[in-house]
RNA sequence: UCCCCGGUAGCUCAAUCGGCAGAGCGGGUGGCUGUUAACCACUAGGUUGGCGGUUCGAGUCCGUCCCGGGGAGCCA
């Protein structure tokens, strides 16, 4: 293969490439002809949002024979010289010496056109949608965020831990689970086998599930390595059809020994600010696309997040604020119940207009592993809310006291025998520790302003959909 | 899962009170031009999501199913 230069590298230093010969490889976005003389071919190679304009002199038969076939979607390689462009809209262009057509795309049936498509339609062509401006920009921003996650934790001295995808505990208090089995539901094991236990014939010889969280296992490593994080796929079998839920998504879960809730909160704040800053610094072109065509307030929201300190309030204070707000909510605000979406949106979008961290939730509405506060009515939990998306982070200080944890498990009806290893962590060298979970897709939604989570993951899995 | 809205040409959409199914873009053909969502002319393209019903007549009204979107719950 010819050694090609990526288009973003040319745009990064245009003057250095002037009058130089380059080879580019990519896909034709548009072709405009000047029958008398030349064709204008815009090529995109995915390295950046912008296309590079290629000029082809059609009086040269070897070019004409290729150019006449070029249509939107064709894969090409172009060799030519970078020159200053006399036209408007671009400062440089490539004057083609040679054009190779690798893969033709029949314009009569190629689904992508030189026009706006609806996101719904693009979802039906998941194999082609990353070739659009918007979905390409999503992919680059998602990549930058993911890389920034590792950069942040590595510079802070965290270790990346791979927690299991398959687990055998199903009651972690985080929703419905997918079963993992090699048994054939169309031909289940015959009843009445010797021990009467169908799972004895299954692969793991007991019920197994796809993970809903790596937190409990991350706690194991936090209590050995000090500071760890997980970043991997997570699964929820909830039958929820919303613009904010996926059956398969990517979650980031840091877990830190010797961190209390306050330390946890400070980490969460510096973490979000770091990854958003990375995108603001390195993805300006892509962000501008979203600010122009998707969410006009995008830049202001992102810059506010980076600049301002998060508002921290207790759950009890939040309830008081909501009751005094004078807003007419569809759902009543009452201490002891979960805050509704409308309540969260009021706090972060109207009242404080920036990220809001709510701490110290009622014990009754939070999972067993959260640390019970001295008032015994609340737990050391934190939810971080951001405008448009709502809850982006959920975390807590974990209950490190053996007796209190056992009591919590009893109250929440969590079978202690299944969590012997988890309880053991409190029995042997227990230490205060904390952590939180952040859904990558929610973060990408927040960063791009896209309303539907199905646009921010390459291949969305939702109830009734596991295509591509 | 619940509530609301929608499904019309390849795509984005229109069609008044129930009365001949349309436009733009895209495709094809021809023309024109250092073009920029190029432009001009001509042209092809439809079981109006499926099934059933009301009616002289249904894209339009009724029932039902399927699919999509928005919102809610649950959560990240």
UniProtKB/TrEMBL annotation:
It comes from the Bacteria. One of its GO terms (biological process) is asparaginyl-tRNA aminoacylation. One of its GO terms (molecular function) is ATP binding. Signal peptide: none annotated. Homodimer. Belongs to the class-II aminoacyl-tRNA synthetase family. This is Asparagine--tRNA ligase.
């Amino acid at each position: 293969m010819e050694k090609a230069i990526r288009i973003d590298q040319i745009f990064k230093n245009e003057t250095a490439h002037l009058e130089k010969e380059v080879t580019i490889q990519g896909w034709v976005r548009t072709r405009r002809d000047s029958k008398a003389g030349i064709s204008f071919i815009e090529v995109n190679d995915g390295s950046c949002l912008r296309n590079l304009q290629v000029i082809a002199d059609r009086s040269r038969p070897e070019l004409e024979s290729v150019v006449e076939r070029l249509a939107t979607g064709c894969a090409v390689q172009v060799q030519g010289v970078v020159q200053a462009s006399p036209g408007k809209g671009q400062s440089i262009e490539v004057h083609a010496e040679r054009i190779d057509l690798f893969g033709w795309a029949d314009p009569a049936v190629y689904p992508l056109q030189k026009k706006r498509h609806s996101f719904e339609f693009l979802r039906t062509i998941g194999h082609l949608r990353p070739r659009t401006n918007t979905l390409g920009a999503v992919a680059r921003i998602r990549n930058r965020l993911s890389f920034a996650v590792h950069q942040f934790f590595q510079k802070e001295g965290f270790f990346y831990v791979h927690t299991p995808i398959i687990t055998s505990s199903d009651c972690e208090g985080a929703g419905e689970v997918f079963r993992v089995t090699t048994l054939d539901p169309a031909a289940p094991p015959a009843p009445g086998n010797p021990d009467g236990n169908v799972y004895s014939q299954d692969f793991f010889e007991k019920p197994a599930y796809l993970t809903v969280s790596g937190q409990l296992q991350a706690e194991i490593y936090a209590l050995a390595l000090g500071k760890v994080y997980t970043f991997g796929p997570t699964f929820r079998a909830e039958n929820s059809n919303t613009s904010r839920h996926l059956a398969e998504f990517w979650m980031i879960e840091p877990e830190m020994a010797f961190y209390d809730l306050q330390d946890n909160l400070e980490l969460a704040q510096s973490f979000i600010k770091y990854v958003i800053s990375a995108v603001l610094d390195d993805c300006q072109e892509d962000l501008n696309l979203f600010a122009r065509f998707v969410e006009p307030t995008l830049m202001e929201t992102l810059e506010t997040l980076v600049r301002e300190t998060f508002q921290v309030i207790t759950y009890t204070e939040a309830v008081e604020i909501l009751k005094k707000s004078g807003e007419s909510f569809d759902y009543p605000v009452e201490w002891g119940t979960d805050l509704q979406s409308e309540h969260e949106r009021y706090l972060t979008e109207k009242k404080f207009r920036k990220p809001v961290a709510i701490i110290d939730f009622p014990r009754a509405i939070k999972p067993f592993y959260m640390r019970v506060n001295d008032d015994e009515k609340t737990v050391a939990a934190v939810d971080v809310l951001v405008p448009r998306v709502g809850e982006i982070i959920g975390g807590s200080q974990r209950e490190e006291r053996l007796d209190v944890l056992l009591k919590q498990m009893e109250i929440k009806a969590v079978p202690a025998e299944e969590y012997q290893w988890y309880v053991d962590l409190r029995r042997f060298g227990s230490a205060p520790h904390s952590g939180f979970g952040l859904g990558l897709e929610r973060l990408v939604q927040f960063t791009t302003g896209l309303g539907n989570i199905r646009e921010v993951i390459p291949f969305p899995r939702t109830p009734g959909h596991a295509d591509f």
